[in-house]
Amino acid sequence: MKRAFRFLLLVLLSTLPLHAQRTVELTILHYNDFHAQNVPTTMNIRTDDGSRERVAVGGAAAMKAWVDRERASAPNALLLHAGDDFQGTPISSITKGASQFELLELMQPDAMTLGNHEFDYGADNLRRLLPTVSFPVVSANLWDKSTGAPFVPRYRLLRRDGMTIGIIGLAPPDLAQLSLRENVRDLDVLDPAMAVRQTKRELEEKFGARFIVVLSHMGYDQDSLLAETVDDIDVIVGGHSHTVTWQPRRVNGTVIVQAGSKGRWLGRLALSVDADAGRVLRAHGTMLP
Prior knowledge:
Layout: H1 2-15, E1 23-31, E2 41-46, E3 52-57, H2 60-73, E4 77-81, H3 90-95, H4 98-107, E5 111-113, H5 123-129, E6 137-138, E7 142-144, E8 149-150, E9 155-160, E10 163-170, H6 175-178, E11 187-189, H7 192-207, E12 211-216, H8 220-229, E13 235-238, E14 249-251, E15 254-258, E16 266-274, E17 279-288
Parallel strand pairs: 1-4, 4-5, 5-6, 10-12, 12-13, 13-15
Antiparallel strand pairs: 1-16, 2-3, 7-8, 7-11, 9-10, 14-15, 16-17
């Protein structure tokens, strides 16, 4: 009986995993296409009783208050901005975007990517503004022909609860058609899928990144196509199409989110992640009005 018991115990022990799965709870706060809506605008919203009420929504102060509150309540939070903070109200045009970078410096996103409207006042203007902010602005598919180097850094590396996260930026592939050609004459826009594959490989092999987030200003349809084309992207935080993803959408295993426009919503994506495999176990998204 003792021999049988020992044999059974060995069998049971051999079926147990060598180590327990380490789960990290990660919160991604995100917004996009703010379009210089620095003061609240008014919108008709439907109330609980079905009637419609005109209320003030958005504004930089309200956005920062929400961000600060959410960051304080979530220990592993990161704030991502998916581009197009410029253009939309006179202050942005008068200051050529300087007003927006000044406010973003107060907001301190963990990473921002460039939308087409960041180039509305020309690439040279953007070159002058970029050194005025301390937060990282990233884009893996913008090549500066005048310097023979990426226009901005391609990615940012972050550590949350011992997990290495790679954030890859993407500009719209049709940037030359979305902006005056003169504004982007020195820039080449590389193929997004190629740029992501190359950057992702570098992040994984050189830095051991296990969790990959693409911060995209390409629009929801293009984000979905990218997820179908490139395997093992964990999350795409999008902009450009002003899409509101009331719940995260999954394409080829990739979680895709986007938070409308003009500060109407702050997106909150709560993730449970297998830290060793870099795999999303659970995803729950909320649009905070």
